[in-house]
Amino acid sequence: QVQLVESGGGVVQPGRSLRLSCAASGFIFSGYGMNWVRQAPGKGLEWVAVIWYDGSNKYYADSVKGRFTISRDNSKNTLYLQMNSLRAEDTAVYYCARETPAADWGQGTLVTVSS
Amino acid sequence: QSALTQPRSVSGSPGQSVTISCTGTSSDVGGYNYVSWYQQHPGKAPKLMIYDVSKRPSGVPDRFSGSKSGNTASLTISGLQAEDEADYYCCSYAGNWVFGGGTKLTVL
């Protein structure tokens, strides 16, 4: 069955960087677009970024454009989110999700931006 | 990329029907037939309940249905059950993707 496992979350100071990973299994990873979606504590869902199946196209929410970079390594079945210049408002659980609409989600990894 | 507008909360008794609205603009909900709905229980990942306005993924009960009129999409849950109590989010294609603010469904 489809499995998505995020990792890399933690506590980081404002202005610093963090890289999240999402290990995929149970499907042909290279055949699907992938998304990052986040959820601030007690708040709603926010789409963050999408990458096409072959990495040829990437799109970002305005709130992270220029600071976050989505990428993938199809040889490792892994999705990444490089987060730079982190702000307090980036504090959230970050989910990876397969395709859009997303029928498959990971369990999420918590990123806390705090001094 | 403004969030779609949902009521903050709705409620209903077991067996009743409830409808959750999701209002956007002609640039998102009204412009594409790509509205989806997600159910989220506390501490859990979202679950896809409806996609492409009215299609149900395999395994989702037919008590859940979706529709759209103009710039407003709706999720209707009929025959409410206790396990339907959760947060519900709409999502629409808008060039990129935009979610609604979420609606808390309480089963009385």
Give a verbal description of the structure.
The complex is a heterodimer of chains A (115) and B (108). Chain A is mainly β. In chain A, 0% of the residues lie in helices and 50% in strands. Chain A contains no helices and eleven strands. In chain A, the strands form two sheets. In chain A, strands 2, 4, 5, 6, 9, 10 and 11 form a seven-stranded mixed β-sheet that branches. In chain A, strands 1-3-8-7 form a four-stranded antiparallel β-sheet, with no helix packed on it. In chain B, strands 1, 3, 4, 7, 8 and 9 form a six-stranded mixed β-sheet that branches. Chain B has a three-stranded antiparallel β-sheet with strand order 2-6-5, with no helix packed on it. Helices cover 0% and strands 46% of the residues of chain B. Chain B has no helices and nine strands. Chain B has strands at 9-12, 18-23, 35-40, 47-50, 64-69, 72-77, 86-94, 96-99, 103-107. The mean pLDDT of chain B is 95. Classes of the chains: A mainly beta (115), B mainly beta (108).
Radius of gyration of chain B, whole Å:
13 Å
State the end-to-end distance of chain B.
34 Å
Helix percentage of chain A: under 10%
Alpha carbon gyration radius of chain A:
13 Å
Number of helices of chain B: 0
Quote the beta fraction of chain B. over 45%
The biggest beta sheet of chain A reads: 7 strands, mixed
Q: Layout of SSEs?
A:
The complex is a heterodimer of chains A (115) and B (108).
Chain A: E1 3-7, E2 10-12, E3 18-25, E4 34-39, E5 45-51, E6 58-60, E7 68-73, E8 78-83, E9 92-98, E10 104-105, E11 109-113
Parallel strand pairs in A: 2-11
Antiparallel strand pairs in A: 1-3, 3-8, 4-5, 4-9, 5-6, 7-8, 9-10, 9-11
Chain B: E1 9-12, E2 18-23, E3 35-40, E4 47-50, E5 64-69, E6 72-77, E7 86-94, E8 96-99, E9 103-107
Parallel strand pairs in B: 1-9
Antiparallel strand pairs in B: 2-6, 3-4, 3-7, 5-6, 7-8, 7-9
